[in-house]
């Protein structure tokens, strides 16, 4: 059963352009690299980055090998400014859809990133989501901030 009051709100400023951050949410290889929290590996099994479609992904606990599968369906994609999507776990004990909104806004030193995740299943304490997002965002920053010169 989902709890509509179980939500998290995150805010960061990232030293990277919004275009690069936006692309990191829509690129399968990028997602597999930055989205899984520490201690997990990620695999994108299928992806179609357009409204009404999405991706199927799994996180695998590196310590015990257990995998958790989920699907994501994009409900809104505004290039370089907003992504809205819903996640659904494939585990029968975690029904319902979590809604995620990611807003990107260019600022003087990069991009302001605001994330809201709502309707988190009651089995997942909000502090676990905060911790997971914090770890994921640290990995996202390591992916999108470097300015690597072209050859």
TrEMBL record:
SUPFAM superfamilies: Bet v1-like. InterPro entries: ASHA1/2-like_C, START-like_dom_sf. It comes from the Bacteria. CDD domains: SRPBCC_CalC_Aha1-like_2. Residues 15-145 form the Activator of Hsp90 ATPase homologue 1/2-like C-terminal domain. Belongs to the AHA1 family. This is Activator of Hsp90 ATPase homologue 1/2-like C-terminal domain-containing protein. It comes from Lignipirellula cremea.
């Amino acid at each position: 059963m989902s709890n509509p009051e179980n939500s998290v709100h995150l805010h960061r400023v990232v030293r990277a352009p919004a275009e690069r951050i936006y692309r990191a949410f829509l690129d399968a290889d990028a997602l597999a690299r930055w989205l899984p929290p520490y201690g997990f590996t990620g695999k994108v099994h299928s992806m179609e980055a357009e409204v009404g479609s999405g991706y199927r992904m799994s996180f695998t606990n590196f310590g015990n090998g257990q995998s958790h599968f989920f699907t994501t369906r994009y409900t809104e994609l505004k290039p370089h400014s907003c992504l809205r999507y819903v996640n659904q776990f494939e585990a029968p004990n975690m029904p319902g859809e979590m809604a995620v909104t990611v807003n990107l806004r260019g600022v003087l030193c990069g991009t302001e990133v605001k994330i809201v995740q709502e309707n988190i299943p009651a089995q997942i304490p909000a502090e676990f989501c905060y911790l997971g997002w914090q770890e994921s965002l640290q990995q996202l920053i390591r992916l999108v901030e470097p300015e690597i010169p072209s050859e």
